[in-house]
Amino acid sequence: MSQIKTTLSLTFSVCALGIAIYSQIAQPPALATGPDYAESSALQSTQNGSHAVSQMGESGPKQAEIQQLTEQIHYLQERILELENRAYSTPMSSQSFEESVLAILEEKEQQERAAHRESNPVYGFYEDLPDDYEMRLKTDPEYADKLSRQLQQTVLNESLPVIDRLSAMGQLQMNMYVLNRTQMDTMSYDTVDAVIKISRGQYEDKLRVQALDVVAQTPVVDARIARSLLDIVEKESNDYMRATAAEGLMSQYYQANDEQYPGLKRQLANDILKLYNNDVDNQVYNLMQRMIGDEELLEQIRKDANK
């Protein structure tokens, strides 16, 4: 690129010198009267060629200046030709240009990824995964287990940026779906609770919303998770988050069974009816009306609550 700049600079210099010569040649002589008029006319008539100019005694200094400028033009023309040949005949020049373009494109792509990750931290990791990521998870149990533990530690580490923790949680849940698992040691109550705390912390709304989104349908069933979701429905000011928490509470109810979680389904059924029968907060009542939807499900919830 520097050679091109140099070439352009020399070209402009040649143009400037050409204009200077033209000015010297084309400048009309000063008008004169009297005895000197004839001589001035003769001088003007001889300025059409460099040979005639060289014969004039009074034009000696101008002739030397013009000659010097002409020589400089020839020199600059030779330099331009040399630099052009060097710029377009050397393979490294085009290679360097290509590398510069690729570097700019790579930087732009990284900026776009960073912006995407910031706007959607839960799934911003996806674009950075290698092409064989899913297949390696399925065929290399040791790799899958090691990666899951690393992701869990990232979620639990409160000293890390929230964006990194949410991204790790999103990737951990995606790994469960890829491996077709409903349970994993690394997807524990502590892991889910850490993200629920983010949804209830003093963070930007977009981070709180996405934190709740990623755990509302968690496969981890736990009475403590259910209580946290119930509390969000009752106290959260953000209507979307209240609705998401209500969906999460219903998800806990659907997944609970008496064999694995004795008494939990009954507790959840009572919690849902408490919200459904809320006669203080109409928003909660309307929300649960939408969640339950029909009389058949409502009857089943009432039945489970009385077990």
Per the principal axes of the C-alpha atoms, what is the gross shape? elongated
Counting DSSP E segments of at least 2 residues, the number of strands comes to: 0
Helix content: over 70%
Q: CA-to-CA gap between the ends?
A: 81 Å
Mean pLDDT score, rounded? 77
Largest sheet: none
Label the structural class: mainly alpha
Q: List segments where confidence is low: pLDDT < 50 over at least 5 consecutive residues.
A: 26-58
Helix and strand run: HHHHHHHHHHHHHHH
Question: Radius of gyration over alpha carbons?
Answer: 41 Å
| Discrete helix count | 15
* Percentage of residues in DSSP E strands: under 5%
Biased composition (Polar residues): 41-57
Organism: Pseudoalteromonas rubra
Signal peptide: 1-25
Region (Disordered): 34-65
What's the gist of this structure?
The chain has 307 residues and is mainly α. It is 74% helix and 0% strand. It is built from 15 helices and no strands.
Please give a structural write-up.
The chain is mainly α. Among the domains are: 107-194, no CATH class; 221-306, no CATH class. Helices cover 74% and strands 0% of the residues. It has helices spanning 2-26, 36-45, 50-54, 60-89, 91-119, 133-139, 141-156, 162-178, 189-199, 205-216, 223-235, 239-255, 264-276, 282-292, 295-305. α1 (2-26) packs antiparallel against α4 (60-89) and α11 runs antiparallel to α12. The relative contact order is 0.05. Residues 26-58 have low confidence and may be disordered.
Sum up the structure in keywords.
elongated; mainly alpha; 15 helices; single chain; 307 residues
Write the topology of this structure.
Blueprint: H1 2-26, H2 36-45, H3 50-54, H4 60-89, H5 91-119, H6 133-139, H7 141-156, H8 162-178, H9 189-199, H10 205-216, H11 223-235, H12 239-255, H13 264-276, H14 282-292, H15 295-305
Helix pairs in contact: 1-4, 7-8, 8-10, 9-10, 10-12, 11-12, 11-13, 12-13, 12-14, 13-15
